[in-house]
Description:
heterodimer, A: alpha/beta, Rossmann fold, 2 domains, 4-stranded antiparallel beta sheet, 49% helix, globular, B: alpha/beta, Luciferase, domain 3, 4 domains, 5-stranded mixed beta sheet, 39% helix
Amino acid sequence: MTMTQQDAAAEAVPASADGEGHLAEHDATVREAHRRAIGDVMLEVDNITLRFGGVKAITDVSFNIREHEIFAIIGPNGAGKTSMLNVINGFYHPQDGTITYKGNVRQRMRPYEVAMGGIARTFQNVALFRGMSTLDNMMAGRLTKMHGAAERAFDKSLADIPVVNFLTYPFFWTADFLMDAFYWGPYQKEEERHRRRVEEIIEFLEIVDIRRTPVGRLPYGLQKRVELGRALAMDPQLLLLDEPMAGMNVEEKEDMSRFIIDVNEEFGTTMALIEHDMGVVMDISDRVVVLNYGRKLGEGTPDVVQKNQDVIDAYLGVSHDRPG
Amino acid sequence: MATVRPAEGDTFAQILEWNAENRGKLPAIREKHLGIWQTWTWSMVREEIRLLAHGLSDIGVKRGDKVAIIGDNRPRLYWSIVAAQAIGAVPVPMYQDAAAKEMQFVVDHAETRFAIAEDQEQVDKLMETMDLCESLEQIVYSDPRGMRNYTEDYIHSFDSLEERGRAHMQANPSFYNDEIAKSGSDDTAIFLYTSGTTGNPKGVVLTFKNLVSMGRMSVELEKLAEDEDTLAYLPLAWVGDNIFSIAQSYVAGFCVNCPESQATVLQDLREIGPTYFFAPPRIFENVLTTVHVRMEDAGRLKRGLFDRCMKLAKRVGVAKLNGHPVSMLDRFKYWLGGIFVYQPLKNALGFSRMRRVYTAGEAIGPDIFDFYRALGLNMKQLYGQTESTVFVTMQPDDEVYPDTVGIPCPGVEVKVDEATGEVLYRSSGVFKEYYRNPEATAEAKTDDGWVHTGDAGFFDTKKHLKIIDRAKDVGKLNDGAMFAPKYLENKLKFFPFIREVVTFGDQHEFVTAMISIDPDAVGNWAERNNVSYASYRELTSKETVYEIIRENLEQVNQELASDPAMASSQIHRFVLLHKELDADDGELTRTRKVRRRFVAERYKEVIDALYGGASEIHVEIETTFEDGRTGVSAGDLLIVDVPTVAAAPAKAAA
């Protein structure tokens, strides 16, 4: 009796393992087949050079990011990865080179103007409003989407007549301010619309249980997720993620990878991310660019990059991430 | 105060018709969507279930087919259960956290052809079982997230099912009404698979009569009105949820609220403020612990107020609920306490509207029980099984004792087998059979309808049933008195310092106990009292720790002495183990139940010493570390005598 039971158990194990293998394979192929097709170039980075005094942070770097893709920027410490994001983000202004976003060569832009243009980001060190709840943090992310109703009416009808503009703008602005302050009329609708979108993201990221929790009290992994949520609340076309998985344990990394892929698939958001965990980078990104000392070492699909000797020498060959 | 209006009908689909006609505008079910509670009334629910029933029929569900239902407590899954029943199919709810392999057993055993799953996770598991099960043909899912890529033609979305239902309804307008008229009270309503601590799960077959009659009985007994609110957070596959969230809700017409996710249950509890609540002791324990932890952190004024008021509440609140006389001054103080402490506290916990609170499943600690009753919550224990459709005994309003499970419910006969001490019952809730398992059915159910519970118990002097242990664990002391190890162990485990305890006494002169202490609680105590220690073993050898445990045991002995049936079970000697009982060593099951026989063998020398009269023993026990390596854990254990109390039959202390 016991023998047969053991036999059955022994048989059952490989069978179920098989089943899982089959499923993982199914996942991968399905993902390939059903992803949104990678589209045209969305952001073109052309011969960018960035200097701080005598220090060259970035030298002559060019690459492009295409619509719907997950694009990774990798490189050892000090390679200029975060500087690159800051350039894209409008936080730094390069001395040379151009950035073309959605077909327009970008002039000197401030970060908020870039944000208005549909580029959102998260930070290497979590930069949330620690005393505010998850919900409020994410509502803050909607700021770029909030326009006063009166202001909008004004924009539509009167904005192109200069004199009217000059005389009436203060009036519309005051009307907006008052309606907003008293949560009245169209403002209620407007707020509801934004709240609905934020709630959708909250559900998507599975953070319903911490909706009302001040983010300062959350564990680090969840704070990172809230930060992603706040960036998503902007409904960005391009999302910049600066080390989304830094300091996470394996389980949290898996969760985060899953969310990045899900966001990419469900919302079609293009993503550029910096990440040190090579396993994650090679798994989730479509293309990778490698920087070292501010220069581009290589670019291509994860497979190609992994085989590039320069890259191996500079980065993958040296064990930075395994102390001892 | 809304009226109690039990609905008419033999099956849930029939009752639903009555509800839609007679209280169509009242809320039937709620769910939180995008942060806002959405409500469906009884007439909306009827429309949903109609559509579903048509849809299920359109994808090929026939009378007698089995439909697996897997997921959290979602309105759509509750509707699926009733929709399947409406067209004569049998729903088979499954535990949502079951692994694919466990799922496969149930799917196979119940010959399930269809499955309705909540989300991608469950669909993945079902697809895995599909390769191995022949019966499963089609899968319906509710939450579309992550499902865009599943294009297999045997997978349907809930929306497409409703779409097909709409078309089917137009083609066959009288189909639904014809179908629901065909089912009667003796038809099979549901299969509920018991989790089964030993061997494979058994499929308990319940009829509409079982569920509806028990639902009706409890609604009338407890006067459940149409304006009750409950929170549905316990697994769909558990008989309790089928009674509380379906049978009682349908019969009484009250509203069931589905939490947003498992992680938000306590928040939702607070938002909904149910009037009627059921929870296993574990939940009440967790809530109480949270309260205590938060109070420890509160300022001195608040803490002082809380402590004083709780002391008063334990004296006055419990007496008030039990109907004992209370002086005017105490009433006034309790009223003040209500304003400053009890009401705000209940509000913070979501208990402020609660009229009835039940607990069952395990023994509940008297302190926990008293805490909630002191706050004025009418908490009661009930006793039941899947096979009895929940209700066997329940505590009546004015006779609530923490250590009994009450008196038989109306219409339920209960008796105790004199030879074995096993509890048997007979009622209209008695299950039909175990599906495809006639041997087990014959073993559990006698020809004249009595069901063996497998639990040993007795009626105490107040005519209340006391459950003491699993019948097979109950032994006899040498003087012929009954020995129920778990009954004693439960009493002991309510002390904060005691983590695990194993008692011995079967075929011995007296009872002894082997105790492992709770390192957190004892460690905490040691820190506060400047007792230094370096390890668990050192902590267990402190004389002061022994002293505290000995006092605990003395207290238990005193309680035991006052109960003639238990007086002989007083604990005479005990030992504190130098290591914790551990599941890695096979001493506990993964659900932390003591594996009695194994422990008795493993600690044979210790037990011999307990009965041999030695005051110290050296033991060496092989242990397994978490990473799988093994080592030897050795120690010198002290054995200590406990004073016993002389009971009616004079018996010298050891």
